[in-house]
Amino acid sequence: MFQPTGPHLSLPTASSVIDAVRDPTSVVFNLEGYQVLSACDLPLGGRRVSAAANSVEAACPDCGVISARVHQRTRQRVKDLGVGGKDIELVIIKPRFLCVEVACARRTFTQVTNQLGFRARCTTRLKAAAVEAVLDEGMPIWRACARHRLGWATINAAVVADTLTIPDPDQVPVRALGIDEHRFARAKWFKHPDTAQWCRVEPWMSTFVNAETGHVLGVVDGRSSANITRWLNQRSQAWLEQLQVVAIDPSSAFRNAVRQVLPAVEISVDHWHVVRLGNQMLTEVRQRVTREVLGRRGRKEDSVWAHRMLLLRAGDRLTDAGLHRLEQVLEDADYEQVAAAWAVKERLRVMLAAKDIPAAQNARIDFEMAVAAADMAETDKLAATVGNWWTEIKVFVRTQVTNARTEAANTGIKHIKRTGRGFRNQKNYQSRILGTSVRQTRRRRRIPHQQGLHAQR
């Protein structure tokens, strides 16, 4: 809203700009580049503050000539942060300057400052506070709208604009890279136009994370080898050459993509997922043996079912009471195969906990002997998987590079998705992920701001 100014206000002059001392009211209000002219309480609550910019001259946006000739001054109401627990009605006395360049086609232009850009209706610090609430505090945009009295589109545009200032992946030194996938949205069904059959589509997205700092470097659509290869090919040669290890889940698509683009880089398989395969094998054996012995699925009165979680726990970390209960379960002659599967799972854990390659190779021999003694399809399948990923397991034993920070980043991504009640726009989804991650990394590692522009590719 624009209104003509009144004669009672004391506007800044050239001499007042030279004097760098601010009055106490301007110091408390602390709007950069502005000084407070007047302030009063409103009858219905809140405060009205009138302010004007310290600068008494500006450059023409077309020709760039500096002008101090004022054509008129207008009052503009803008939104700003509250002060003292009360909302502020900020009135800016904005001058319109005359361009002194005769050859310039623009005759007049308005004043532009760091806090109030061209046609801005709210201050920059108010937008920054809204972005901080969304990215740092994890607040949904609708709640930030209620707190700062801004529209959804305004805050979302500010969040998207903030992600343009985060470091480009090529400017972030990365020695160990983590790759993992997460589900972007719920599974959807659609009818194929040619076959008229219903097909299930699961919208997955892949995340690239600095395995040492947890900084999310990029998010791409899908989890296929082609998508991983495309993102890696977009990186600079210097960035690719500094990579030493890539940590992945036991995924053939990820491994093929890394080997295709980075044949000299070592691949480390995440040990947690390998242990999970061992626990899954034990669960499958327990369920099969229970059906064979009892002719039904397990119930709470069955000892092997009641202690199913005890079977999955690390054997070397059990208490004396836990070991006693575990021995009672495994001593049952009807569940000898469960005991054999549990022994295979524990040998697998010992192999992954080895401190060096010779110890891991010796532990693998014990693991293979336990598999041969078990003589079950489930254990043979696990042994084949270990053999297929043995090179990557040795890299993990030697480097200890895991996907732990990548999984932690995925947990944060899921929290963002739940807070936003899901996302339909992938650009907004990626902006929220990248902006939140880089702010968390800055707090931990103090990465300098404005290292470069990062447009998600």
TrEMBL record:
Residues 58-101 form the Transposase IS204/IS1001/IS1096/IS1165 zinc-finger domain. This is ISL3 family transposase. Residues 177-433 form the Transposase IS204/IS1001/IS1096/IS1165 DDE domain. It comes from the Bacteria. Residues 433-457 are annotated as: Disordered. Pfam families: DDE_Tnp_ISL3, Zn_ribbon_ISL3.
